[in-house]
Amino acid sequence: QVQLQQSGPGLVKPSQTLSLTCAISGDSVSSNSATWNWIRQSPSRGLEWLGRTYSRSKWDSDYAVSVKSRISISPDTSKNQFSLQLISVTPEDTAVYYCARGAPAAFDYWGRGTLVTVSS
Amino acid sequence: DILMTQSPSSLSASVGDRVTITCRASQSISSSLNWYQQKPGKAPNLLIYAAASLQSGVPSRFSGSGFGTDFTLTISSLQPEDFATYYCQQSYSIPRTFGGGTKVEI
Questions:
Q1: What's the CA gap between A107 and B93, in Å, rounded?
Q2: Which residues of chain A does B100 touch, with a Cβ-Cβ cutoff of 8 Å?
Q3: Is B16 a residue whose pLDDT tops 90?
């Protein structure tokens, strides 16, 4: 059974960096068949896919255009986890953030979600 | 980006009813369409993948159909635990995009 355990702060100040981590059990971040995704949800934007990292012959990542200049998703193979960094946040980045496994197209396992509020 | 449009945005139904939710893509996505159920305070849960394949552990009263741009999710006999919000999501191209949701209420 795959489990995704999210961690990270629930409050971030405007202009600072949002950082979240998703620890994986029951699978490997280095899997050649899965992708590792971050998705957020807010009343104004609904469910919004932010990006993914994955390993095939090499590590790669894809990002949504809306956040491409501010986002980084990276794997940590030593800890079997992956992380989200979103720089220069504004109140519009306030949302529930989820990590999810892509298998590889549908999101079959999700973390429990982290409410991140951007406020001073 | 591929725009996913769901209808209706909400519906009222009773236990035992047959419920159909539609999802339309702004361009052809073959059968690359997934359906999720979300309950308040919880993460979405995968119900149907590749338009018509039932995810392991999901009751058989849920079914999906469609190809190209038009898709449907059907609940054959609505149960009390099915009152939730349902989302479609395309996996044809990057970025992955979701529909706006359909809230199924009593």
A1: 14
A2: 46
A3: yes
